[in-house]
## 1
Amino acid sequence: MFFASCDNALDKDPLNLPSTGTFLENENQIKLAIVGMHSPLYLLYDQIPFTLYFDLASDIGADRDVNPEQLFHTANAGNLKSLWTYMYQGISRCNFILDNIDRAKNKVSEDKLNMYRAEVKVLRAYYYHVLVSMFGGVPLIDHVQSLDDAYVARESQEKVVDFIISSCEDAAPYLSATNQPNTMAITKGFAWAIIARTALYNSRWQVAINACQNIMKLEGTEYIIDPSYENLTKIVGKTSKEIIWAIQFNQDDKTQLIPKRYYSRLAGGYCNKLPVQSLVDSYECTDGLPIDKSPLYDPQHPWNNRDPRLGYTVALPGTVYMGYQFETNKDSLKCWNYNVTPAVRVNNLDATHTYATFSGYCWKKYVDSAEYRSDGASSINAIVFRYAEILLTYAEAKIELNQIDETVYSAINKVRGRVNMPLISEGKNQDELRKIIRKERKYEFAGEGTRLFDVRRWKIAEKVMNGPCYGRVPKGYPSAAPKIDDFGNPDYTNFVDKDKFGIKLGQRYFDPSKHYLSPIPYAEIQVNANLIQNPGY
């Protein structure tokens, strides 16, 4: 009796929770599992969505408290460890669903099961996209592991890329074509966007073109170039049909704390995540010429007559930011507070506070006075893919294949035309267009998390991420423009006023012998003897 009683008791499944032995036996459980597989996307670095934080480790941004090489180029970096862990956690959850979804086949139609399988395959492909973009080849795991097969060696980067592309291609036919930008719905567009970016990053130009064309066919119905560039990263932009896919935040559930990190001191922020001088100087004047060649550039009014995307991306001195006169000239001891009526003069903390912005600038993307909260919580979504990227990816891939036609100019000009920048005239050669497209990606996506991977794949990081990281001239203005290279990058080597720049952001260091890939986290190497570290680490 004793053994019979124990046997019956020990075989009971939990009565109040799903059991791994039976989970996914109906559609509600499948839906719960799919919600759970999104959880790792809420990885935050200092309360900033991880997808956006990458720009702070590039040549256009800075974290005041740490150098870029400490973020993603050190084997003991906490950021790398958490990225590895969260992405593989997501992959594991996806694998569990795919391995067990057939438990529901008697209760859920095959069409729906195919749709759910497709959604899971696409999100798993995105997790692998993040990993392969950061580390190169990684362990390729496509099923739930037992303890015996837990120590997996790395696959080649090429094989992981093949897996990402084929997973999305296989899944796309079963997904909806309807764009639902504020829902995290996994659609055909999301699948094709993953293919397009992964192919672009790995020089698979025709694959990228094909994926982009699939999305471009839906322009005007499911995808648009939003008339307002500024609104895309504001609350009102959450429903824009330019957005293909974004990580969702809302005040009732999930929030991020970008505003506290981006706000100026007067606005109640820490301003410790910053755009830097090399980004500001890279934007063209409104005549389409760089600042070292344009007659519109005035060193005494350096932010006038510039590409409008500069002012939408960066809080510039002399403008109004979060209701305050934003002025970082160290001689500006008082400024205006426009948050009260009538406006009043207040002490200018953005010029006098010890920890005011070290670069003299703040980010304007992803902050919105319409949702101001004293705790800094924000429900602005973190954009992962938007239609402008598809157009520029299409153009870049066509340029690299030297398939230059009217569609290349049209794709670029739709993006430039939105902000009334001069259109690119036809008749350019491959080299000229390559320079144009690289500049355009920098202007369009600054602050959105793509720059680190762009400078790596273009193999220019050793040039743009070595040497001093400058902020604005603390008092007054420079006497001339620095030299701007053909790819829109400032060169301060022989700049007459470089000694006047703010230098609190320190030195950058990029070693081309190893830093074009990040190291596998040291803890993972210690645990799994089958993992081989990237060269140089």
## 2
Amino acid sequence: MHIIGTAGHVDHGKSALVTALTGTNPDRWLEEQLRGMTLDLGFAHLCFDDGIEAGIIDVPGHERFLHNMLAGAAGMELLLLVVAANEGPKPQTLEHLAILRYLNVQRTILVVTKADLLEAAELPQVVTSIRAGLRDTLAHDAPSIAVSAVTGLGLAELREQIRRELSLLPARNAEAPAYLPIDRVFALPGLGTIVTGTLMQGTLGVGDRVTLTPSGKQVRVRSLQVFGSPKQSVSGGARVAANVPSIAVGEIARGEVLASPQFESQDTFKVAFAPFASSLPALRRRNPVRAYIGSAEILGTLLFDAIPAREGIHAGTLHLRRPTIAYPGASFVVRRMSPKLLLGGGTIETNLTGTDGPRTELPAQGEDILRVLAAQGLEPLEVAKLAARANLREQAAQETLDRLIEDGYVLRVARPLAYVERAAAEELFGRVTRQLGTQSRDEAWSMGMTSLALARALSLPEALLARFLAHFAEDGRIAHRSGYYAPVDHVPTLTAEQRAFFEGQIPLDPQHPFTPASLPGVLNDLRAARIAGLSKAFDTLVAKGALVKVGDDLYRGTQVAQVHARVEQFLRAEQQMTMAQFRDLLGTSRKYAVPLLEWFDARGITVRSGDVRMLRKREG
């Protein structure tokens, strides 16, 4: 098996393409499907009649979720570069390509999506223009195919091109020690903990004793699956789900590695580094960095004997804040601490038996500021108060703080802007993730925890904790969805009993597809039912839009989505719509039509003018 990866700008149709090729929607989150935007890694299985098969990793296109993209990019061998015909390459397209040149991509196909939005005669010129915009990237000479996930145009040709490219990829080294970077962790009833990832090299078998890094805990593989099919053993290149029941979900996270015991954790590596051309002026002999190895993001320092002054390969040393494992030849990428710009990447050359990485030499005022912040603990200090306590001018304090943030010693939180020692924040982050892990394990059906619930569990003031949670979420280290915090890979999963309850509450009648349930009636039944976690499961379905409250009515999210589509189609054709027309459009009664149309007004989908509604005009 080989790994195909998607890349490209947000809203250029990556997920729709994967769905059209495989029949599997890679967007696991209901929120992703409702918003039409990938937030985290998605996976699908692609098989051909001649036995060739591949796993597809669909990555987020939005720059805010670049850390999630990097967590899945390490295993890619064949890249589907997705560019919309009506927009062409965007900055995020080029950023993805810049990152992927440092990883394991060996072959590329340029997929020009949304071809149905252009006239057939326009396509050749558009494809030529897109190719010109990809000059000097790893896609510059890639074969190109125009497709439409809506009409099916070009999909058969694309499948055949994918099959040809996969057949040319070399096999992974099955004789090497097993190395599997973990990108998802969850639990299944009766099985316990499941970890998933791309097996980068080696072979993994049922019954094998393997090590989790960086914890060093040894576990036994009880069972293996590849896209739902049980396996006794798997070889490098496979998308693997490994059942390791002897360890709790809360003890593992994305970024850890499941590997053969012969690997040793290290915090120092000799590397061959290739700088990104536009980042050459930012490089120094000592560079605080965010390093991406496997599925992990680890803070560290990249050192050179001499500052790289040109493109090419440069020898360096990578010191990490926490140990990990990496095999010689493994790829890595580094970004600046802040702003998170790409510096370059390369390969691990050798492991060095290391001690802690060197601490950047700081001027006296830096040490003074760190002493003040250390005494504050978790209480952030604004720059004026911090400067006074450190006996510094405010401007000098701010300049020193900026350097300390870049070097990774200080963290900045918002509302208002203030500063805290990173060590204290990291200790809090550990407490937060352990609590969230316990919650996601014990109540898999919940969205997570609110800031108030977390504050009570951790015995902290909510206002203080909320500032840190916002930073952790913005940094992509925890998920924040609809007011709830959760581990990044937490997918709310209702029990069979909970699902059956809600399915029965809003039965779908083909004769009256838009009839809702009574919200008070559902709530009364919910309180009377003796089903564990039912109230939180209801909150989850409402928060994610699977259930929608409209006044005293309760709809399925799919019903509301269908109504929305009908309203848009009608108004684009007719420009205006009366209440009576809306009622007839849905085949419903005025009792339900009035609050439903007012709900669309309140959300800015429609706008009322006298007795008619129109689509609200969108800026841009």
